[in-house]
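Let us work through a complete example step by step.
Step 1: write down the sequence.
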Amino acid sequence: MPAEVGLTPLAWVNRQRVTRARELLESTDLPLSVVARRCGLGTDDGLRQHFRRHLGTTPSAYRRTFGGERTSG
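Step 2: predict the structure and record it as tokens.
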């Protein structure tokens, strides 16, 4: 699939991880460190780095803007 979309395998995986992180930030109130681990991004610093690179914003700012009703998990 990555070759079909013009991405390296690592770039494709990281994009999928950021997509999952976005879903969790929109729908849960999990701490950033938990979101990062659940998405395979390691730490909250890793999450912030990938968010900034892919979306040009921070996870916290994204959650403030797009977080709706949230659950704990």
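Step 3: interpret the result. The chain has a mean pLDDT of 90.
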